[in-house]
Amino acid sequence: MDMVLDAAVLAQAARILAVLGDAGLRVVTAESCTGGLVAGALTQHGGSSDMVEGGFVTYSNDMKMAVLGVPRMLLERHGAVSAEVAGVMAEGALARAEKADIAVAITGIAGPGGGSAAKPVGLVWFGVAARRGGTRVVSGRFDGDRGAVRRQAVARALELVGDCAASWGSVRPDV
Question: Cα–Cα distances in Å, from 119 out to 69, 123, 135?
Answer without folding.
Answer: 23, 6, 22
